[in-house]
Design brief:
- It is globular, with a radius of gyration of 21 Å.
- With 368 residues, the protein is α/β, with parallel strands linked by helices.
- The strands form 4 sheets. Strands 1-9-8-5-4-2-3-14 form an 8-stranded mixed sheet, sandwiched between helices.
- Helix 2 packs parallel to helix 8 and helix 3 crosses helix 4.
- A hairpin with a 3-residue loop joins strand 10 and strand 11.
- It folds into 2 domains: 227 residues, 3-Layer(aba) Sandwich (Aspartate Aminotransferase, domain 2), CATH 3.40.640; 123 residues, Alpha-Beta Complex (Aspartate Aminotransferase, domain 1).
- 41% of the residues lie in helices and 15% in strands.
């Protein structure tokens, strides 16, 4: 039995006629860039997150970079970030010629507050805080730390659209938030897509200028900007998918519950905190030993089960940083996780038989 890690082909098969109708509608009205559907998409995101302003851009990577630009981060400044995330969380810092300050994570894969406090300095001008794998932690301590030190907080919510904790929604924390609609995310674009969110009109207006060549509607081209527009077709398809968002989320949560209740107790699975809503962008296992993790990975792949490692090395160990300046804390937990974790397939298009096959395959190997 082949069990795919992603299910975009199955999603397309189910909604093919709807997608083709969306394509035809956009091509008929002809506004393939900045069409009315882009504005509808932005409005929907403000409703989902509770933010006052949303700016659709080409990717979450661009949204993170634009956040730093709009907040006034300059070359030579420092930006605090975890070393356990996707590369975009840190490469945006290099793009602006600032210095990354890598901190460790806690047991929930999120930035460790004690590590942040150790690595703080007068040069730190922003914090990029990624939520991991569809889960969010209580951020009250991080928010207090940022406010007391006068450091702008950028919420990297690339993986957590729809997650909540204590009735506070992902996408609503800090000075601004960035969400990804990459095809691998819980709501995936037919290509790339991202959104910048904030309650500050000044920040939103600046990002709107940056996304279209630095053009201000009243003054013309006022700075060197970028071409980071979300195509109308992308926004249209995302609008359609957002109407099905809750059913997708419930299906992932049902799969996660089955995994958690039936996998061998020797394997540590993700847990949902009280008063929270975990949307399970990824379902990540944590093994006690790297050798066992690697053997399980090979075993599952031999059986045709799609699985991946998120992530196989701390960000600072990538060659990208070999000749670049950065500061780092002791990254003991980051390094440990990279050798122990494994992601199982979790998407709405998995069948019950496939889910059972995944569980049995892991249990048969771990149990033996």
């Amino acid at each position: 039995m082949k069990v795919p890690f992603f299910g975009l082909d199955r999603e397309y098969k189910k909604y093919r006629n709807h997608f083709l109708e969306i394509f035809e509608n956009v091509m008929i009205h002809g506004k393939v860039l900045q069409g009315p559907e882009v504005g509808e998409f932005e409005e929907t995101l403000t409703e989902i997150t509770g933010r006052k302003h949303a700016v659709a851009v080409n990717s979450c990577t661009d949204a993170l970079y634009f956040s730093l630009k709009a907040l006034g981060v300059n070359p030579g400044d420092e930006v605090m970030v975890t070393s356990y995330s996707f590369i975009a969380s840190a490469s945006c810092i290099l793009r602006i010629k600032a210095t990354p300050v890598f901190v460790d994570v806690d047991d929930d894969f999120h930035m460790d507050l004690a590590s942040m406090e150790r690595m703080n300095s007068s040069k730190v001008k922003a914090i990029i805080y990624p939520h991991m794998f569809g889960n969010i932690s209580d951020m009250s301590g991080v928010i207090q730390f940022a406010q007391e030190n006068g450091i702008p907080l950028i919420e990297d919510a690339a993986q957590s659209l729809g997650a909540e904790i204590n009735n506070v929604k992902s996408g609503s924390f800090g000075d601004c938030s960035c969400i990804s609609f990459d095809p691998t995310k819980v709501i995936g674009a037919p290509g790339s897509g991202g959104v910048f969110l904030t309650d500050e009109k000044k920040l939103a207006d600046h990002v709107r200028i940056l996304r279209y060549h630095g053009k201000d509607q009243k003054q013309g081209f006022v700075e060197c900007g970028y071409n980071s527009q979300m195509p109308t077709l992308t926004a249209s398809i995302l609008n359609f998918k957002l109407h099905h968002f809750k059913e997708f989320e419930l299906r992932r949560q049902k799969i996660a519950k089955f995994y958690s209740e039936n996998l061998n107790s020797e394997v540590k699975t993700q847990t949902e905190k009280p008063n929270s809503n975990h949307i399970f962008h990824k379902f990540v296992l944590e093994f006690k030993d790297s050798t066992i993790r690697n053997q399980v990975l090979a075993h599952l792949k031999t059986l045709g089960i799609g699985c991946m490692i998120h992530y196989n090395m701390p960000l600072n160990k990538n060659k990208l940083f070999d000749k670049r300046k950065y500061r780092r804390d002791s990254l003991t937990k980051c390094e440990s996780l990279c050798s122990l974790v494994l992601s199982l397939p979790i998407h709405p298009w998995l069948t019950n038989d496939e889910i059972s096959f995944v569980v049995d395959s892991v249990n048969d190997f771990v149990g033996s």
